[in-house]
Amino acid sequence: MTTVKQVIEQKANIVFSVRSTDTVEDVLMLMREHRVRAILVVDDGVLAGIVSQGDCAIKVLLPNNNPKQVAVSKIMTAKPLTVTPLNSLEECMAIMVHKHIRHLPVLEGAKVVGVISVGDLVKNIIEHQGSQIKFLETYIHGHGA
Fold this sequence. Notes:
CATH superfamily: CBS-domain
CATH topology: CBS-domain
CATH class: Alpha Beta
Largest sheet: 4 strands, mixed
Structural class: alpha+beta
CATH architecture: Roll
Radius of gyration: 19 Å
Number of domains: 1
Order of helices and strands: HEHEEHEHEEH
């Protein structure tokens, strides 16, 4: 069983964040620059929320609000669901599927140590399946089948 810790240790795991007083434009610029789809909101070292591309599009751009004038606090998901490094990827997948979310902040105590995304989970599943296929091929070829 793979844990969140194992996945975040394999990633560059730079945590991108803004403050709740920053603007949606700041969030969008950070997303574009780093090619990520969600940004954590951290105030004074404490996780305050999370903002996704969907939040920006649905809550700001579609209603024709100006992203330079809308504070992140107005659109963020406050007190987001979180996981710890000890959670399994299966637990993360269950949370994401049940709650219809794509990103989970990873906390160790109160400290943000990473973010796990649905993409990370899919990548892990594909790698695991590839390993299983190689094992089965080796087994089959090794037993004269």
